[in-house]
Design goal:
The complex is a heterodimer of chains A (about 100) and B (about 120).
Chain A lengths: L1 H18 L8 H26 L8 H29 L4 H5 L1
Chain B lengths: L4 H21 L6 H25 L16 H46 L1
Classes of the chains: A mainly alpha (about 100), B mainly alpha (about 120).
C-alpha cells in the first residue's frame, strides 16, 4: 500500500508539474523526483518481498494493509511538508518577505 | 532494516561530485551538473522518505545505536545482508532510471538547436 500511495502521489505531482506548474520557482519538479525516487526504492523492496512470500504477498492481513496505507499517507504528507518548507524558504512570490 | 543507508551513501557521493563539477564548469542550464542534481534529489528524497518508514517500524531510533538491529548480532547480520542486497539494488535502480532520464534530456537538448536552425 505504501508503494501504491507513493506512486499515486508521484503521478499526481508529475501531472501538476507538466500541465500547470513547470516553472522552476515552484520547485514541483523537486517533489516529483522525491516521490519517484521513493517509489523506485519501495518497488525494489516489493520485488524482494514478493520473491520471499510468492502468492502470499497479494494476500496481506487487513491490519497490515491499514497500517501500510496509513504509513503511505504519512509519507505523502511528509513529502509535501518538505517541499513546502523549500518553497517558503526560497519565497518565489515574495509573500514571506512582505510579511516581514 | 536499514536499506535506505545505501542510497543515502550514494547521495553523499553524488552531491559532493556535483559540487566539484559545478565549481569546474560553472552554473549552466544544460550539461551534466543540472542532471546530477536530479539524481541527488531522487536519492536524498527517496532515502528521507524511506528513513521515515524505518522510524515508523521502530527500526531507527533517535538514540545510540540509532539502528535497533545493532543491539543483536543476528539482527546486525540480517541488516547488513539486507543492505548489501535490497539497499544496493535500490541504489542501482534509481541510478539507472536517472541514466534514462539524463539520456532523454540530452537527446532533447541536441534536437532543440537543430529544430531552431530548421525554422
Amino acid at each position: 500500500m505504501t508503494l501504491l500511495i507513493t506512486v499515486i502521489a508521484a503521478l499526481i505531482v508529475t501531472c501538476l508539474w507538466y500541465f500547470k506548474f513547470n516553472d522552476k520557482k515552484y520547485k514541483l519538479g523537486t517533489l516529483c523526483l522525491m516521490y519517484w525516487g521513493a517509489s523506485l526504492m519501495w518497488l525494489v523492496d516489493a520485488i524482494y518481498e514478493f520473491a520471499e512470500l510468492k502468492d502470499e504477498y497479494f494476500r496481506p492481513e487487513a491490519a497490515d494493509m491499514i497500517n501500510d496505507a496509513f504509513l503511505g499517507l504519512c509519507v505523502a504528507v511528509l513529502g509535501v511538508v518538505i517541499w513546502l518548507v523549500m518553497v517558503l524558504v526560497s519565497d518565489p512570490k515574495g509573500v514571506v518577505r512582505r510579511i516581514r | 532494516m536499514a536499506c535506505f543507508i545505501v542510497p543515502a551513501g550514494e547521495a553523499v557521493v553524488t552531491t559532493i561530485a556535483t559540487k566539484v563539477l559545478e565549481k569546474k564548469t560553472g552554473e549552466k542550464p544544460t550539461g551534466i551538473v543540472p542532471k546530477m542534481k536530479w539524481l541527488n534529489t531522487m536519492l536524498w528524497g527517496g532515502s528521507t522518505l524511506l528513513a521515515f518508514e524505518h522510524v515508523w517500524h521502530g527500526e531507527v531510533v533517535p538514540w545510540f545505536p540509532f539502528l535497533t538491529a545493532m543491539n543483536d548480532a543476528a539482527d546486525t547480520a540480517e541488516m547488513l545482508a539486507e543492505m548489501s542486497t535490497v539497499g544496493v539494488t535500490m541504489a542501482i535502480l534509481v541510478t539507472l532510471a536517472w541514466g534514462v532520464m539524463a539520456a532523454a534530456a540530452t537527446a532533447a537538448e541536441k534536437r532543440a538547436p537543430a529544430e531552431t536552425e530548421a525554422t
